[in-house]
Amino acid sequence: MGVTIDTSAIVAVITNEPSEAIFVLSHTINKSPLDIAGVDLNLSTDEIVDYVREGREKL
């Protein structure tokens, strides 16, 4: 069994026999795992600041 990896395209070619080859392609997403969709809570900036202050006062 032979394995050839081309890192420029992230492709691996695995061969079991001279006439048989398996191509493995990797798909990457150039996106942060922290990049999530927002949620509309219908809160004003002042309301959010009030909630944060209230939470800090409890600590």
Search tags:
59 residues, three-stranded antiparallel β-sheet, 1 helix, rod-shaped, alpha+beta, single chain, 24% helix, 3 strands, 31% strand
Could you please describe the fold and organization of this structure?
With 59 residues, the chain is α+β, with helices and mostly antiparallel strands. It has a domain at 1-28. It has one helix at 45-58; strands at residues 2-6, 11-17, 20-25. The protein has a 3-stranded antiparallel sheet, with no helix packed on it. It is rod-shaped, with a radius of gyration of 25 Å. It starts with a strand and ends with a helix. The model has no long low-confidence stretch (mean pLDDT 74).
Record the SSE blueprint.
Layout: E1 2-6, E2 11-17, E3 20-25, H1 45-58
Antiparallel strand pairs: 1-2, 2-3
Radius of gyration, Cα only, in angstroms?
A: 25 Å
Lateral strand order in the biggest sheet = 1-2-3
Distance between the termini: 61 Å
Give me the number of helical elements. Answer: 1
The geometry reads as rod-shaped
Percentage of residues in helical conformation: 10-25%
* Count of β-strands: 3
Low-confidence stretches are none
- Taking all residues together, what is the mean pLDDT? 74
Our estimate of the beta-strand percent is 25-35%
Could you spell the SSE succession in H and E letters? EEEH
Structural class: alpha+beta
Biggest sheet overview:
3 strands, antiparallel
Offer a quick outline of the entry.
By secondary structure, the chain is an alpha+beta fold.
